[in-house]
Structures are given as structure tokens and as C-alpha cells.
Amino acid sequence: AGKAGKAGKAGKAGKAASSSVVGVGEEVKAEEAEEVVNLSGTTLTGDTAVVAKLSSEPPVVALVKETVAKLYSKYVEQAPPDSLGVTVWRFLSRRTWVRLALLDFFTSFTDFSKRLTSFRANQKFERGEGASFKDFVSSIKEDYGLSLVYCWHALPGYWGGVSLDSEEVAEACEPFHHKPEPTPFVSEMEPSILWDPSSLGGVGAVKTDKAYDMYRNMHSYLHESGVDGVKVDAQSGLGAMGGGGMGGGPAVVRKFTESLERSVSESFGPEHCINCMCHSTENLFSYKKTAMARVSDDFYPKDPASQTWHVAAVACNTLFMGEIAHPDWDMFHSRHPAAGMHAAARAVGGCAVYTSDAPGRHDLDLLRRLTFPDGTVPVASGPGRPTEDALFVDPTRGNRAFKVFNKNSFEGVLGGGEKWGGGVVAAFNLQGSAWDRRRRLYAFLEDTLEGLEHALEDAKLKIEELEGSLEERAEEVASKAKGAVKDAAGKAAEVVKTALDKAADDALSTLEAVTHGQLEESLEIAGSRASPSPARASAADAADAALAGAVGREAGAMAAAEALGAAPLAQAGQAGQAGATEVVKAAKRCARGVVTPADVWGKDWAAKLRHGGQGQGQGQG
């Protein structure tokens, strides 16, 4: 069972492996909680809050929440810590109905307000009546050939601490209600922590002298059930619980870490604990026994801008944290656009190689490249670190590779008999995105955006060139076609003028739609969504008018002949109908610039069209 946490790693089941959960002030059954959207695995923003709606929610309430969420996104979410928007929102979230609305949101759609109610697993991990959690662990080891099973829990117990209403927890831990107060520096780095569920609703806290009892109850049960280790999350948040007579953040963290390491060592061994969310120095400098620690933010599968920066962060942080603990570079998805990059990073990182794939969604070809044929995973012998030439270079800019090196246990012998260890180096292209401290999110860099803007400007220039070319061709063809049609039209009888005008109007409308459609299609290919310019429109009108005359000559002459009953004119029109159709088709091709009149009828095309074919009369002309 893995961690769901902020990045939605392994699903909600993994987080409840050793706990039942409770919201602020009310019990929540795990199977009921899964019926609604769980946003614990996403970055919580105003936009995600808009998406989260309960089916039973009245439309008016939903509209109010949506409006507030949009205002939050616009004026608070990315505003500086000392801005008016953040100041006003902090007041609203603590002094008005917004506080209750936020607590309801966290309880309904996240795990962050839930508390540990039991040290034992709930019914989700019991296969059938009379089955135990131990049976569950044994079955998944046997069914899937697993050698190790870890369980997740938070340093305070669960995200919201421990339950104040559970007799089992009360007997072991003597919990009490406590409101954490984030430090000024943390508040500046991440203002939203001031209105997270622990700040608004408090947590179920355990006194430092009872921390070992909490971990002992939890870990002894897991050990007896066949579990081999734990991943302990939310560690940096514990420092905020140092107020209210608790002795200060560093003292609280030190006591809890000592109790955790003692319990882990007794149940699993200190090497079977992954410390997570632990980058505060009060956490890092308290480790004495446990060996592994996460060295980066989460792998966020749905955040494209975070992918390359994740690799830069784990390698650079390992330079410092690798001296304190064995680095954990986090899980990743083997079926993901950035999976190859993440796999290469784990191969050189000297870290545990593990994925958080959904069941059945695996890129087995990629995973096999990380293992030997028998399934053994080769791991480099030390923490992966940046090469010397990459130490003081921004990996996100500069058009250069970011390199990570490590060593392995495959020794060789040089010509002089000197032994040397095997080495491995990986080079990554991490250009283009980074953590934006001002807006507090992963973002593509301005340099990248400027490059896109230049590409857009180039596209606009090409569109303008295309417009000019289309205009010139249209004017040339229109001029020649107009001359030919004008000569033919001058010979038409006055009696058919009315019919010719009507037919010409119809043809103009049809051809205008076709011509403008072709122009719009050309512009879309060039990357533009703009309307045709006046220059293009006038050129198209010229071509349209010329072609409409040709179409009108044929249709109008036939209609007039039939109306007057003039047999000679009708016969001439029928005889020339096929020829006139070909003239129209050819004229359209000329208007599109596919051919010129000379290509169709030869250099003397004007004379041919003016006088018509021999024996066909004025119909073909």
C-alpha cells in the first residue's frame, strides 16, 4: 500500500492501511468517502474547487461557491503574501462563513481533515468474514510475489492527527485539540497554509511524552500483520504544533522523531522507514537511525511544468541531503509522457526504483529496461549527484545538458593493475520550466514563452505573404476573366438581361462561399484564425464577379430562350451547354491560381473565348 498524499500516488486505499478516518467533528466511513471525488492527489486551486460539487448541493449554493472560487483564483491564489487579496482572504477564512465552507470542502473532497481513529486496519483490508489484515498482507505477497510491503501513515498519525472521540486512541495517547500556528517564513512561502484544514479546524494532537505509545501501538500491530516497513509523511508540518505550551517547534519535532525512530527500529529495523515531507532542518537534523528520506516535492503526473524540474530538484537536493540520509527520488508512472526521463533518473539516482502505476497500466518494456531478467533491480552504490560542471549552472536555462553521476559495484582493472569502480553518467534536457516562487506554482519559463511568441510572429509574417500572393493571383485571373466575359456578355440580347442579372447574383453568392472557404482553410493551415482582410476580400470579389458572368451567361441564355420560345437561340444554347460548363470549370481553376487561361486555351485564349467554337454558336461563347 502506497501513499496517496498530494500527488495522488497509489489511491486512497493505501492511506487507510493502518487506520480508520474521521473528519473534523464527525465520523466518516471509508467506503462512503470513496463515493465522492477525492482531490487529495491534486494541487488544490480555485479551479479544482469549482469542479468539486456534491450531487445533493442546491444550485444556489453551488453558484455562490463557484463565484467565490473564481474570485480566489483571480485575487488570492497567486498574489504576494503581503497583498490585499491575501490579507482579506485570511480574514474571511477565519472570521466569516467562509471558514465553515472551507472546512466542509476539505472534509468532503480531501483526506486532509481526517484523523486516525484506530491502530487497526478497517474492513477494506479484510477479505471475507473472519479474515484479518494479516491474511490480506500474506495474500498479496503470495499472489504477486512481493518481498516487502510497507504502509503509509503521517507523523502526527493521520493528516489531521488522531481522533478525540476514539476510546482506543484516547487510552493509548491521551489526545487533545490543538491549533497549529505556521511560522512566519512558512506562511510567506505558502500563504495557503494559513487556511488549510489544520489551521482552520485544528488537529488531534498527542503530547510529546505519549508519541512513542502512539507509534508503538501502530507499528507493533503492523509488524504482527506481516508488514515490513512504513512511509511516514507530513513531517515538516509538525513544527507548527510547537505553540501552546508544547515547547516550540524544534523541540516537538525532535521528540516525535526520536519516538518514531525507536519504534521503527524495534518493529522493522531503521532501514525500513521512508521519511517524507521532511525538508525542515528541524526534521533533517533530528534523524539518528532511519536511513531514507524523500529529497524532493512529489511527482505530479498531471502537471507538465513540474516534470523536468523534479529531476533537477532531486539531484541538487541530494548534494546536501545525501550526506544525512539515503535519498528517495519518489515514485513515478511508467505510462506517462515523461516516464523515460524519470526512469533514467532513478537508474542513476542510487535510490529505490518504484512506480505508482494504476493496476494494469504499466509500460512493461520501460520497466524491463530497469531490471535484470530475473527481476532484480540494479541500483547504483551511492546517491546520484550533479557533475562538477553542473553544480553552479541553472539546469532550466542555457541550452546545455544537466548531468548526474554515480558509481556501481562492477570493478575493472586498468593496464597498470589499478582497480577502478564502474561509473554511470546520465545527461538530461531540463530546459523550459521551474518552480515560480512568486506565483507559487510550477511554470514554463518566460524564455520559453518568448520563444513561442517569436514563432507566432513568424507565422503571422508567413500569413501576410500568403495573403499578398493570393491577392495578386486573384487580381490577375479576375482581370483576364472579366475581359473575356465582358465581350461575350456584350453580344447577349437585351431581352435576356433580367435573367442574366439574377443568375449572376446566384452564382456570386455560391462562389463567394467557396472562395472564402478556401481562403480560411489556407489561413488555418498557416496557424491563423483571423477573418479575411479587406485586401483578400476585394481580390476574391473580383474573381467572383468574373466567374459569375460565365455561369450567368449559360444559365441566363437558356432561361431567356425557353421563355421567348425562340427555337434558334434555344438550339444554340443546348448545343453549347457542355462547352460552357467546361469554360466555367476552367475559369474556377484560374481563379484559384491552379492554372492560367493560357494553360487551358493557349496563348490565343481570349480570341477563342470571344468568338466561340465553329458551329456551336453563341451558346458556347
List the helices and strands and how they pair.
Layout: H1 12-15, E1 21-23, E2 26-27, H2 30-33, H3 46-51, H4 59-75, H5 84-95, H6 97-109, E3 115-116, H7 133-144, E4 150-154, H8 167-173, E5 176-178, H9 184-189, H10 197-201, E6 203-205, H11 211-224, E7 229-233, H12 249-267, E8 273-275, H13 281-284, E9 292-294, H14 307-321, E10 326-328, H15 339-349, H16 364-368, E11 385-386, E12 402-413, E13 419-428, E14 433-436, E15 441-444, H17 446-490, H18 497-525, H19 534-564, H20 567-575, H21 577-591, H22 597-601, H23 605-611, H24 617-620
Parallel strand pairs: 4-7, 7-8, 8-9, 9-10
Antiparallel strand pairs: 1-2, 1-3, 5-6, 11-12, 12-13, 14-15
Helix pairs in contact: 5-6, 11-12, 14-15, 17-19, 17-23, 18-19, 19-20, 19-21
Quick one: how many beta strands?
Answer: 15
- Rg to the nearest angstrom? 37 Å
Determine the fraction of residues in helical runs and give it as a percent range.
Answer: 40-55%
Major sheet: arrangement of strands: 4-7-8-9-10
Distance, first to last CA: 85 Å
Number of helices: 24
Shape: extended
Structure description:
The protein has 621 residues and is α/β, with parallel strands linked by helices. Helix content is 48%, strand content 10%. It has 24 helices and 15 strands. A five-stranded parallel beta sheet has the order 4-7-8-9-10, covered by helices on one side. A three-stranded antiparallel beta sheet has the order 2-1-3, with no helix packed on it. A three-stranded antiparallel beta sheet has the order 11-12-13. Helix 13 links the parallel strand 8 (273-275) and strand 9. Helix 5 (84-95) crosses helix 6 and helix 19 (534-564) crosses helix 20 (567-575). It is extended. The relative contact order is 0.06.
